[in-house]
Amino acid sequence: MSFTFCDFSSVWGLDTMFWSHVKVLVKQIQEMRQFPDLPGSFRFGANHPISHVELVGLIVHVRQYEQYFLCNIDDGNLILNSSFLSLHPSDIS
Hints:
This protein is mainly beta and 93 residues long. The protein folds into 2 domains: 5-55, no CATH class; 58-91, no CATH class. It is 11% helix and 40% strand. The protein contains 2 helices and 8 strands, in the order H-E-H-E-E-E-E-E-E-E. The strands form 3 sheets. The chain has a 3-stranded antiparallel beta sheet with strand order 2-3-4. Strand 6 (58-64) and strand 7 form a beta hairpin.
């Protein structure tokens, strides 16, 4: 008898990858699809639901503004433009 992972949506919290911070590349983030049954969780690898990621790559450019800063992160495949909010100007150093 064959089951798909969607049959077990009520026990996704038992999958350790759901609660872990999974290290991913920019290309993997673009390929992820959201699970319709659980908002905020995405399909990763062999149908594992994940809700937290750590982006792996190098920061190649930083642009500083008064309340936030923008940076480009290169993982060897693609470059991601991202922004980070700073609550205090001294945090951006």
